[in-house]
Amino acid sequence: MEDSFCIAEVNAMDAGRLTGVLRQCVAVDRWARELADGRPYADRDDLLARADELTASLTDEEIRHALDDHPRIGERAAAGSATAAMSASEQSGVDSAALADRLLAANAAYEDRFGHIYLVCASGRDGADLLADLAGRMGNDPVAELSVVRMELGKIARLRLERIVTA
């Protein structure tokens, strides 16, 4: 995981470096670039509020692109990827191989139904809870499900940004 930075460091950081750091939160160039371009931020809460606005403004295409950077629930990100350490921490509740296998099978059914991976903010949740959530979301229509994915992406982005930018 990238180091953490105080808001003064974020405000002073080279735009290219900051954009790269922010891409760890949401793998959408526009999101990271516009968040970097919004500087200076008065404080961390100001930055988080702008990040929430940008997440809400993501297009369906940008959301689908962001999904490409997320491992499936129960699957670990490739070592060395920009988000591998964060993803591993977020999915720490998926602790048994049997449960991970069930999640991977459920992911496959979800992907068949919706055409993209199942995304959920898994931090603090165990595998059984995630399986129940996934099963419940299978009843959504594709438009409603994309709305849920947007909200979950926002939760993940905020959690990651809170880890990177200290108070």
Describe the structure in brief.
By secondary structure, the protein is an all-alpha fold. Helices cover 62% and strands 0% of the residues.
What is this structure's SSE topology?
Elements: H1 7-12, H2 15-22, H3 29-37, H4 44-56, H5 60-67, H6 84-90, H7 97-114, H8 127-137, H9 142-164
Q: Could you name the key traits of this structure?
A:
167 residues; mainly alpha; 9 helices; 62% helix; elongated
Question: What fraction strand?
Answer: under 5%
Mean pLDDT: 88
Rg over CA atoms: 16 Å
Helix/strand structural class: mainly alpha
Oligomer: single chain
SSE arrangement, N to C = HHHHHHHHH
**Uncertain ranges:** none
The count of strands amounts to 0
Q: Span from first to last CA?
A: 18 Å
Q: Count of DSSP helices? A: 9
Principal-axes geometry comes out as: elongated
The biggest sheet, with number of strands, parallel, antiparallel or mixed sense and barrel status, is:
none
Q: Tell me roughly what share of residues is in helical segments.
A: 55-70%
Describe the overall structure.
With 167 residues, the protein is an all-alpha fold. It is built from nine helices and no strands. The protein has helices spanning 7-12, 15-22, 29-37, 44-56, 60-67, 84-90, 97-114, 127-137, 142-164. Helix 2 (15-22) crosses helix 3 (29-37), helix 4 (44-56) packs antiparallel against helix 9 and helix 7 packs parallel to helix 8 (127-137). The protein starts with 6 loop residues before the first helix and ends with a helix.
